[in-house]
Amino acid sequence: MPFRLMGFLMSEMKKYSFAIPPKTLKLFRQIGYLAESRNEKAYAVGGFVRDLFLKKTSPDIDITIEGDGLAFAQALAAKTGSKVEAFTRFGTSIVIISGFGKLDIATARTETYAQPGALPDVEKSGINQDLFRRDFTINAMALDLSPKSFLLLLDPYQGLNDLKKGRVKALHPLSFVDDPTRVFRAVRFEQRFNKRIEAETQKWLIDSIGQKSMNTVSGERLRNEFLLIFKEEHPERAIARLGKLGVLPMVHPALGLSASKRRLLPEITKALGFFHDHKIHLDSPGMVWFQAMLLTPTPVQAEALAKRLMLSRDEQKIVVQHAKAYPALLKEIASKKTTPSRIYRLLSPLHPEVQCFLLAAAPKAVRKKMTDYFLKMKNLKPWLRGRDLKEFGIPPGFRYSYILLEALNGQLDGRFKSRKEVIQWVKQAFAPAG
Ligand code: ATP
User: Fold this and answer.
1) In 10-39, which positions are buried (b, 16+ CB within 10 angstroms) versus exposed (e)?
2) What is the reported pLDDT for 111?
3) Is 55 exposed, middle or buried (CB count within 10 Å of its CB: 0-12, 13-18, 19+)?
């Protein structure tokens, strides 16, 4: 690297190194000295460096070693009294440092793709080649941790400039063909940081999806990319962008973003907020977002989609319930004739994730009916229970479920005003005489 550029980057770094927490700086120094003593070089790379320039501290720290990452991880663990978990496929280890957290330590490597979309074959390399295998220029920067050039920024692809200009830029035209999951990563970073996918990169991205590159990616990796999008602070922005770029139907024809579902995206944020505020539990809030991307699949399509994305049984059920309930069930709830007990029968068998989506999709007038229902259900204690029936001497049998259901319906619809009234009704109608 020319000296002048190095000098510029050093002074540039001074502005940002203050953002590195002292604990991390201390550990970086330790790592640098250890690498030097082993005739190796260590670098902090990827998201940590990017986030530093965005004045954010990233909890995940990736270290790349020019040398032997696995042996380095063992040595660091021994020196710091930590635990190491090794994953040899890519020469990456995770070291858990007590009082600090998790460090990912990898060997600097090049990657080649035997087939597009497959996991790469890897080979040891220097840091520059390691940076070239990365997804975007903003993620292809490294901080040298060597004692003699501590915190020198390596930025061979002008990632810092792209970060300042607000551009997410891939490193070469075949980047998205090699690894189509980068399409999701591009959208995720663009929307998270309020940047723009650079024009030529967007062309490469669109060309790659036109070539049906998504077909080469395993369901597991696709599913994981969706989950990461749903975990973002604003999944609605990323989903809208994926819809606009035409990515979704390329993953599976049952996916897409219709105009009506696009309009729903802000409502999903509100519905999730309602569930959160009222402590109504959702096992996988991401599945509420996922439903926004469904194009009312038939049962056969729903099954094919579940298979493609390797959805769990519960996730698959959510897709099927969604296809049945939306939008027909909302129409029924909207009807003036629909009683609270009927709403209960319609909504209660559904996964909470489907209920939450329906709340988002409900027209304003129906929404009130639904929020009332959810609040009522949260604290609902049926006034009549099976043990009451036993106590009244009613012989156990199929009549129990009928009586309990009628009692609950009456309670929900306001036909009974209190437990006393329900008990009176049961005793009169069902208890044996005497
Ligand atoms: P996040 O803040 O979402 O965790 P990150 O950049 O730290 O973002 P990771 O998935 O932890 O993302 O990846 C760490 C680094 O590894 C990235 O910054 C990038 O340099 C590289 N990387 C990750 N995934 C890919 C990929 N699919 N192709 C190329 N490089 C990748």
Assistant:
1) eeebeebbeebeeebeebbebbbbbbeeee
2) 82
3) exposed
In this predicted structure, what is the pLDDT of residue 92? 87
d(C-alpha 274, C-alpha 292), whole Å: 17
Instruction: Read off the DSSP letter of residue 253.
Output: T
Which phi and psi (to 5°) does residue 221 adopt? -70, -40
- Using alpha carbons only, how large is the chain's radius of gyration in Å? 29
Tokens 């319609």 correspond to: 346
Q: Whose CA is nearest to atom 10 of ligand 1?
A: 47
Same domain for 161 and 171, yes or no, is no
Indicate the SS3 state at residue 2. coil
The list of the chain residues with pLDDT below 50 reads 1-8
Ligand 1 atom with the smallest distance to the CA of 62 is 14
CATH number for the domain that contains residue 239: 1.10.110.30
* Domain finish residue from 358, 376, 394: 376
What is the position in ligand 1's atom list of the atom closest to the CA of 51? Answer: 2
Domain span at 369: 253-376
- Token duo for residue 102: 């998790």
Which residues are within 8 A (CB) of 195 and not within 5 positions of it... i.e. 6 or more apart?
A: 163, 166, 167, 168, 189
**Is residue 195 assigned to a domain?**
yes
End of a domain among 130, 165, 200?
165
List the alpha helices (DSSP H) in 63-169: 69-80, 127-132, 159-165
Confidence (pLDDT) at 404: 95
Distance 307 CA to ligand 1 centre (A): 27
Do residue 240 and residue 258 come from a single domain? no
Residues in the chain: 434
Pocket of ligand 1 (CB under 6 A): 46-47, 60, 62, 134-135, 139, 179, 181-182, 185
**Nearest to 57, CA basis, from 11, 17, 30, 105:** 17
Domain annotation covers residue 434: no
- Reported as a single tens digit per residue, the pLDDT across 191-243 is 999 999 999 999 999 999 999 999 999 999 999 999 999 999 999 999 999 99
The pLDDT value recorded for residue 14 is: 62
Rounded to whole angstroms, the Cα distance separating 386 from 195 reads 60
